[in-house]
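Researcher: Structure prediction, please.
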Amino acid sequence: MSPSSPHRAFPDGFLWGSATAAHQVEGGNWNNDWWAWEHNPDSPCVEVSGDACDHYWRYPSDIALLAELGFGAYRFSLEWSRIEPEEGEFSVAALDHYRRMLACCHEHGLRPVLTYHHFTTPRWLADRGGWADDRTPERFAQFCTRATDHLGDLVGMACTINEPNVVSILGYLLGRFPPGHTDGSEYLHVNDAMIRAHRLAYEAIHASRGDFPVGMTLSMADFQAVPGGEANMERARHSMEDVFLEAARGDDYLGAQMYTRIRFGPDSPAPLGNEEGVRTTSMGYELWPQALEATVRRAAEVAQVPIYVTENGISCVDDTERIEYVTDALRGLGRCLDDGIDVRGYCYWSCLDNFEWAEGYGPQFGLIGVDRATQQRSVKPSARWLGSIAITNTLEL
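Model: Predicted structure follows.
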């Protein structure tokens, strides 16, 4: 960066990282509801996760590479079904594995950001009703206690539940995630259960060895209404976002995660499709980096806690498009900071090209490519570009 070029300096201590989720990268997670869902011929999944990125074994080199690129944090998740393969039976070997991952982050100067639940649920729990069962919040809190007892001294930050609103919407209302239900009443019941589980988990983690910030992460979108669609937008946003933002008040932080916008019209409670003329990503939704600024502002206003951007990114084949998207998103984040909003970090999704749930391995969100045949990693230009921003704590405008 030229000394004379316009640039944006971020606050001292601003955390720059990248993220993965266990099921999307580890491989071989056969004991959870998602593995069963992938192999269900009636599900919308286009392929199975299989060996994924073999990150369960390759994490030392992946973490070292992330540190080498200049990042200061690595967000990853525990696989509940490995740690508690049957109800009340905990695997010390699995806990020790994640302890080694946490230690590896510290060895390379990365702050480990640990997610306790990232979409996947053990099969034994799914068989008992999953998140619709009234006892699940307590079971999750017990899992959090056991995991924190074993791992807490090495955790840098913790996310209780990743995107609880996605678990409820896609799993219990739209039928795209397990268990594949389409029941509006059950969806609202699961929303309540996820909020209760978060609150119990927050308390359980802090009551154990949780001497670190704890919060939830929330999938957010830039909600917009065309004339006459305001009531439909507000109604949808309330159940999809606001009940969770309000539940986060008093937490140590909120992890805001955003990718695009959602528009609503006057004629239907369902969202409108993409607007004609607006570019789209390979996921099919609008390329809308403005979503980061809009959602961070709303998250801070409603939740009233410090904000970390725990996911933001784009799936694209042309890596220059990734740099363009993230540049525009970070410019918006800078405007939030200028206005005094307490934003403390940015975590790009994802570290690796990985298993994108029902969409399979087609989408390419990663800063690092993965050869599906050989598991060889390839660093994309966007990884070095974003890593240089992390090193300098500065964005060239």
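Model: The chain is about 40% helix and 20% strand.
Researcher: Thanks, that helps.
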